[in-house]
Amino acid sequence: MPTNSSEFEIKFLFPSDKLQAIEKFIISKGGIRRQHLQAIYIDTPDFLLTKAGVAFRLRKEGRQWIQTLKVSTSNPLERLEHNVTLSVVGSAIPHWDIGLHQSHEAGHLLKKRLSKLQTKDLQASYQTDIWRRKALVRTRQGLVEYALDLGFIQVNQPTGMTKTVVQELEIELKEGPSSNVLLHAQNIIKRYKAYIDTRSKSEHGYLLARNLQASPPVRAKSVSLKKIHGDMAAINLLIHSCLSQVLPNQSVLNSEALNPSEYLHQLRVGLRRLKVLFKYLARHNIFIGEEGLEVFKKTFDALGQYRDSDYLTGTLNPVLLSLGGPEIKLSAIQDLPNPSHITRNAEFQLLLIELMSLGTPPIVEAVEGKDAQENSAAIKKTAVKLLNNTFHFVVDRVPRFAVLEDEEIHTLRKKMKFMRYSLEFFRDYCDKNQYRKFFKSISSTLDHFGLFNDICVSISRIEGLTEGDPTLLFALGWLKAERQRVRSLCEKSIKKLIQSELAWKI
């Protein structure tokens, strides 16, 4: 018996000392009994399904076996899900058949992503053994389900069995609008210091099987608005695009990753893209609150401290040592707290929920042809207007570049970043050939401006410390000379940029 649905849920991790309180909470909502769930996750030997955002499993629920296919969507909180109850019962693992899902939307999407996949290509990859306590909670507008999962994921390796512990709480939408889940998520964060984790059991199993600590940092993916129907659908797609970068990177940081630098960088890129998007949303009367904006700024700045420290320790020190200078050792760098303290913070987690609420329609409908273009006219008009205004701001200041203060140069950098991220959002509103040329030019210019900013920040940090540590004078002298050299590169590149033909269509 198949069931056709999409799955909208938020998964949380939480401090171990909150487990008992969460368990009591779910029991108070009717979650008296626990359910034993044993699953086998199926993939190709090289994990093509996992890499394509697909999970395929057989799960034993009591004596019954359920075959499930889940496929990711543009919304990082939603997956297409198709369940088929198999006719076999008992402890013996039944045969799987990927063809049982071919008539469902999830099966269609799987076929699109992995067109040559066949059942014979698949094998059991890892297993889960979970005790689930769940409770259905009626809301004014629908129904949500709490599920507390405790257990483990295990993989049979050549060297023996390896396991990882599962302790997570899921809130899933059963009926009504997705805002129901978001409201309950806010309460869980406030009451239990819970924090969002977008990594599925499937992803954890893959990492365990490959002996990896974490998936690679998630970079921004290209956005296409060609087939999007209406301004709100376009806005939702852009919000989901940003969250698809922010949520997985903060999930890894929450787990106290051993090498957080690139996850931090990609999280900040995702937040920066959101910041650009805020300006477009405001033109369509979509806002986050003042408190949320303050948390956004505070979090972004706090994460920026690590970026500045990375430049000093990872880039500047090797250069200074190669020149025979001393290594810079600033105690402030070592004193920075683990970045998980920033990303797990309840204020930031609540901000993420608020950001999710900006794009609550769960699935963006796509249509072909002329109507899609006409119905997205307002967002296109906004994009062209803001790009034109920003470009003219830059053009007006370039003739005076030689006399600009460092802070004014930093403002130019922010304006160009706004243009670059806008171009990534609205690529489909641009001339294809001019887009490539302009994007290459602005990216090259921003590389120079980024280096200039790193140097200025380093000078600012070191300048006040030279009196107590004269060895820093060598570094300071080198940085000031380098600042002049890079400033010259900035001027040349930005003058070239403003001569470029505009990529966006008027």
UniProtKB/TrEMBL annotation:
Gene3D superfamilies: CHAD domain, Hypothetical Protein Pfu-838710-001
Domain (CHAD): residue spans on this chain: 228-506
Name of one Pfam family that matches: CYTH
A GO MF label: inorganic triphosphate phosphatase activity
CYTH domain span: 5-212
Stored PANTHER family: INORGANIC TRIPHOSPHATASE (PTHR39569:SF1)
Annotated protein name in UniProt: CYTH domain-containing protein
